Amino acid sequence: MDERLPPGLYVVATPIGNLADLSPRAAETLRRADRILAEDKRVSAKLLAHAGARAPMAVYQDHTSEAEREAIVARLGGEAIALISDAGTPLISDPGYKLVRAARAAGHAVHTVPGPCAAIAALTLAGLPTDRFLFLGFLPPKAKARGDAIAEVAGVRATLVIYESGPRLGATLEALAAQLGAREAAVAREISKLHEECVTGTLAELAQRYAAAPPRGEIVIVVGPPAAAEGASQSDLDSALGEALARLSPSRAAAEVAERLGVPRKRAYARALQLAAR
Ligand code: SAM
Question: Superfamily assignment of 118-223 in CATH?
Answer without folding.
Answer: Tetrapyrrole methylase, C-terminal domain (3.30.950.10)
